[in-house]
Amino acid sequence: MVSESLPTFMGVDYGSKLAGTTAAAMVHNGQIELWQSARGQDADDFLLKLILEKRPATVFIDAPLTLPKVYSQLPYSSGSDFFYRTCDREVQAMSPMFIGGLTARAIKLRTTLAEHGIAVLETYPTQLARILLPDEKSYKKDLATLPVIAQLLQDQMNYAFAQTPTDWHQFDALLAWLSGFRHLSGKAILYGDAHEGRIIV
C-alpha cells in the first residue's frame, strides 16, 4: 500500500474554532504523525500554520467545501434542496447549512490555501469507517474501545502510527488521511455531483 510516488498530503478532522477538536495526520519520517489544536486555541490559525509548515500538496478535510447548488442558481425554485447537497444525502452527512459557521471557515481556509498552491478536498471519515470497520458499532461512542479500533485501522495501513490516537478527532484525522491515500491511489469512492461538490472516501 506504500507508494513513494504519491504527492504529500494531509488528513484533517475539522472542529469548532476553540474546542480543541481539530486534528491532522500526515506521513513524516516514514510514520503517520498526529497533531491537534489545544482547547481555547484558534483552530484555523493552528491549522494554517501547520499546513504551511508541512507543505502538503493536498489537504483532505472533514468539512463541507461547497453549498447546495440551489444557491448558485437564480431564480430559486421552491422544489430545490436548500439544505443538502447530493453528496451529503448519499453519505448521510450533516447539512452545510446547519453547520454554517464551520462551512464558512472551511471554504475560507480552502481559498487561503489555494493562494499558496495547496489544494483542499472534502472527505467524510464516518463513511470510510462504515466501509472499513462495519462491525465496530462503538466508533465515536465509547472512548474505551478506541485502542482496539485504532489497531484494526493500523492493520489496514502500511504506515505505522507514530503515536496511538487518544481521541476520536485524531482517529478521524487518520481516516481522512486514508481517504486521501485511496484517492491518490485511484481507489476512492466519489459521492455527489462534480458541479455541486464531491465527498471523497
Please supply descriptive tags for the structure shown above.
201 residues; globular
How would you characterize the overall build of this protein?
This protein is an alpha/beta fold. The chain has a single domain (9-200), classed as Nucleotidyltransferase, domain 5 (2-Layer Sandwich). Helices cover 33% and strands 18% of the residues. It contains six helices and eight strands, in the order βββαβααβααβαββ. A hairpin with a 3-residue loop joins strand 7 (190-193) and strand 8. Helix 4 (125-132) packs across helix 6. The chain is globular, with a radius of gyration of 17 Å. The two termini are 16 Å apart. The model has no long low-confidence stretch (mean pLDDT 96).
Short description:
The chain is 33% helix and 18% strand. The protein has six helices and eight strands.
Integer tally of domains? 1
| Uncertain runs | none
Order of strands across the widest beta sheet?
Answer: 5-4-1-2-3-6
User: What's the N-to-C terminus distance?
Assistant: 16 Å
Classify the beta-strand content into a percent band.
Answer: 15-25%
Which architecture per CATH? 2-Layer Sandwich
| CATH classification class | Alpha Beta
Q: Structural class from helices and strands?
A: alpha/beta
The percent range for helix content is 25-40%
Q: What is the count of β-strands?
A: 8
**Morphology call:** globular
CATH topology: Nucleotidyltransferase, domain 5
Name the average pLDDT: 96
* Count, helices: 6
Give the ordered list of helices and strands.
EEEHEHHEHHEHEE
Radius of gyration: 17 Å
Largest sheet: 6 strands, mixed
